[in-house]
Amino acid sequence: MTFVQQINGETDERLTFSELERKILKTANILLSLGLKKGDVVTLFSPNSINYPVVVLAVALIGALCSPINYLYNADELMKLISQVEPSIIFTTRLLVGVVQQILPQCPYNVLLMDSGPGCFLEQDDGCLLTDVKDVGILMDDSFVLPFSSGTTGVPKAVQLTHRNVICNSQQVLDRERLDYHKEDKILSVLPYFHIYGCMANMLACLLTGSTQIIMSKFDPEMFLKCIDYYKCSYLTVVPPMLLFMCRHPLAINTTFPNVRAIVTGAAPTPVSLIEEIRKKLKAGAIVKQAYGLTETSPALSINLNSRLKDDSVGTLLAHTELKVLDANNKILPRNQNGELCVRGPQIMKGYYRNAAANEQTFTEDGWLRTGDIGSVDENGFLYLFDRSKELIKVKGFQVAPAELESILLSHPLVADSAVIGVPDDKLGEKPRAYVVLKKDGSVREEELVRFVAGKVAAFKRLTGGVQFVQEVPKSQTGKILRRVLKEKYLA
């Protein structure tokens, strides 16, 4: 019997487990012949595709590191991240190679196409036997992938996740109470693989459990519904805007999802009302639950148990995961009090790549990871998120760093100061809005600043929430922007 591991939901192209293995081994051999060696970095600049797992696993097989980057980034954004990891090779697609070519004069990397079809790298014949892949002596604490953090300081940081991190986190989540994939399941893989949520919960988890993943290159409303229906998808991993679409979009409002037995939502807190609303559209007994994690934690820290669901919580801690809640003076708080969540466990990253200063800020002296998130734990072990102190704006599940947009605004000759926050939006989840202080005698229209930023960032980072002019930006004594004050003043 032939088991299909991957299906391209947009073209119906398929790969069985055995075909996937052959492609991985062949690709690894070719990469070795090109001189790629253990410890080298390979950048992936591509949307989801049937070949994405091939590249990730072929690179890992020879001890190199994959560093996936958001394919929506423009050349300037791409360059900022690539310069951190200095890859030997960049994998991209025909549609994106033009963006990569813009940075080649500064950094002449080896660029390979990962599309399917004639003339593409993955279709080459290496002429080697499948058993010819050389054992390079990979250790459990060697780095496996270098995904990028959310970038609260403006520029995302490369996160070193080891083989041990990823294996342990997989063991922590893949059980009948947490992420209970079966080999008969069809898992819709619409979350981007460049994000650790999509990489782990879809790409790697399906391989480990024998499930079939239905791959979408991006979220498209009609294709999303078509894939769920046509392929009878049984398990969905989503972000809150996708749930909102399933409940309220005209295309989906009269649609039921009879084959879906479970939905896990993460990447941002999900309103209880939305969880209750989507549950009514599923078959009796279907599971809808929240999970919580970070890029730095491989990513999962907590997931609701199937037998102990609590809609307003992100669940209970995974096995072998420790948590303490600290106040502003680094004192441990009792249960049911909000403070910064600090964690320890086998899934915690090795550290930020080549960034000792960031590591020193992120880890406590006794080895706990500061999440930067505010929350509490109740007497039954349920974890609650109060606020994202990292203050990221979540646009359709994508993370937007306010500091990056503020930096761009401050580069405008007429802008004296700025602050960016996320404002609620039914379709997007949140959208960025800027509060701008103009220089004395400065005069510029809102639309001009919106266009100014739009020309420098990916589409999802644009100031779709608009620009408002203010007399001052509220700040603490140490100069930190008080975004909560802005939200209380303008969004209350």
Automatic annotation (TrEMBL):
Keyword presence, Ligase: yes
Keywords, in A-Z order: Ligase, Membrane, Transmembrane, Transmembrane helix
SUPFAM superfamilies: Acetyl-CoA synthetase-like
One protein family per Pfam: AMP-binding
Domain AMP-binding enzyme C-terminal intervals: 404-480
Transmembrane segments: 50-73
Coiled-coil ranges per UniProt: none
InterPro entries cross-referenced by the UniProt entry: AMP-bd_C, AMP-bd_C_sf, AMP-binding_CS, AMP-dep_synth/lig_dom, ANL_N_sf
Any one Gene Ontology molecular-function term assigned to this protein's record: CoA-ligase activity
Source organism, top-level taxon: Eukaryota
Entry keyword annotation includes Transmembrane: yes
Gene3D superfamilies documented for this protein: 3.30.300.30, N-terminal domain of ligase-like (3.40.50.12780)
Domain AMP-dependent synthetase/ligase, chain residue ranges per copy: 10-353
Similarity comment text for this entry: Belongs to the ATP-dependent AMP-binding enzyme family.
Protein name: AMP-dependent synthetase/ligase domain-containing protein
